[in-house]
Amino acid sequence: MMHMAFYWGRKVTLLFDWWRTKSWIGYTVTVVAVFLVAAFYQYMEARRLRFKALTLLEPATVLGPTPVTSMEAPLLGFSAARRAATARVAAAVLFGINSAIGYILMLAVMSYNSGVFAAVVVGQAIGYLVFRSGGEEHVMAVGKPCACS
């Protein structure tokens, strides 16, 4: 039976049919795993934002100096355009991983188990405190005239 309201209890099916908890030990392991994934989500978001800030604000630092163009020395390395494209692909991969983790956490909350919900919220809060409360978000907000973007 699927619950349609929040409940407390050790019996929960999380994400897959094979991930069912029947004992308190299994439930505790599940809640700790969800907590760690939620904290990891904040870690990945911090890395993604830092990477984005570096590529937007200081492209020379991330991409490195380009004293010679690829037309002048094609075998010496990547061109500036190719390095920028590689940075964009890396940023897109980080965004995709973060989106997947976020959707997994959302589906975990949709189990309607109060312990799982609390683990996601507390994991997000602790992850934010540890990984994202360093003030780097102010750097990202400086260049944007609209707070909604």
Automatic annotation (TrEMBL):
PANTHER family: COPPER TRANSPORT PROTEIN CTR1, SOLUTE CARRIER FAMILY 31 COPPER TRANSPORTERS. GO terms for molecular function: copper ion transmembrane transporter activity. It is found in: Membrane. The chain crosses the membrane at residues 24-44, 89-109, 115-131. The keyword Transmembrane applies. It comes from Colocasia esculenta. Keywords: Copper, Copper transport, Ion transport, Membrane, Transmembrane, Transmembrane helix, Transport. InterPro entries: Cop_transporter. The lineage of its organism: Eukaryota, Viridiplantae, Streptophyta, Embryophyta, Tracheophyta. Belongs to the copper transporter (Ctr) (TC 1.A.56) family. SLC31A subfamily. One of its GO terms (cellular component) is plasma membrane. It is a multi-pass membrane protein. The keyword Transcription regulation does not apply. This is Copper transport protein. Its main location: membrane.
